[in-house]
Amino acid sequence: MSSEPPAPLSGAAPDEGTPVSVKIRERLNAARRRFHANDNIAEFIQPGELERLLDEVEAKMQGVLDSMVIDTAGDHNTQATARRVAKMYLNEVFKGRYVQPPAITEFPNAEHLNELMIVGPVTVRSACSHHFCPVIGKIWIGVLPNEHTNVIGLSKYARLVDWVMGRPQIQEEAVVQLADLIMEKTQPDGLAIVMEASHFCMSWRGVREMDSKMINSVMRGVFLTNPTLRREFLALIPRRS
To answer: pLDDT tens-digit profile of 146-202?
Structure first.
């Protein structure tokens, strides 16, 4: 009797049994790319792999429920919870990690606009990296264009906010990521961002402080050097709740 192992099935991939998360991580490591919670990794995910990643997360989430001693077989309320949570994380609340940035049409500043423009409030729906608890709030964006600035539609600011915030975030890092992205897309003379948010990791757990909010800002370009412009931006923001 031969002791040689059976030949692999025709057409079977040599790494067919490797979890898709491992393959994605290997590509990231090979490219020396960071994959922190608030990083976008879409370029390292191949077609069809997001669906397989969903299956993998569902299986791991089922293990979490089992370890929490929840009878998902007998409890009709939690029978599909593992799948629902996996879909929520990958397709909704953390979608900004797994999809390419939204398509942004940029137009030349034909009229040479150079006055302060403010967009907001734009709704923030995110989650903290520490506990995956919701972070809900608002953002105001101030832009001072120049003749070379790329002009983008108002709705595109909301799409960029949604893409950056749709990941586990720390608020002070999130506004910096957003500022970097808008500066890259529009190249203005100045950019100002103010974010105000409630953190459920404070109100739902921990100290359970219901009314506390965090407010922070990022100033770029002339907003850093021109205090009059900075005061004008802050004065024009409607009274925050």
So the answer is: 877 777 888 899 999 999 999 999 999 999 999 999 999 888 999 999 999 999 998
Closest CA relative to residue 211, chosen from 221, 226, 199: 199
Helix (H/G/I), strand (E/B), else coil: 110 = coil
The model's pTM: 0.86
DSSP-assigned states of every residue in the chain: ---SPPPPPTT--TTTTS-HHHHHHHHHHHTT----TT---GGG--TTHHHHHHHHHHHHHHHHHHHTT--TTT-TTTTTHHHHHHHIIIIIITGGGTSPPPP---EE-TT---S-EEEEEEEEEEEETTT--EEEEEEEEEEE--TTPEE--HHHHHHHHHHHHSSEE-HHHHHHHHHHHHHHHH--SEEEEEEEEEEHHHHTSTT--SS--EEEEEEEEHHHH-HHHHHHHHHHSPPP-
Q: For 26-40, how does the pLDDT look when each residue is reduced to its tens digit (9 = 90+)? A: 999 999 999 999 999
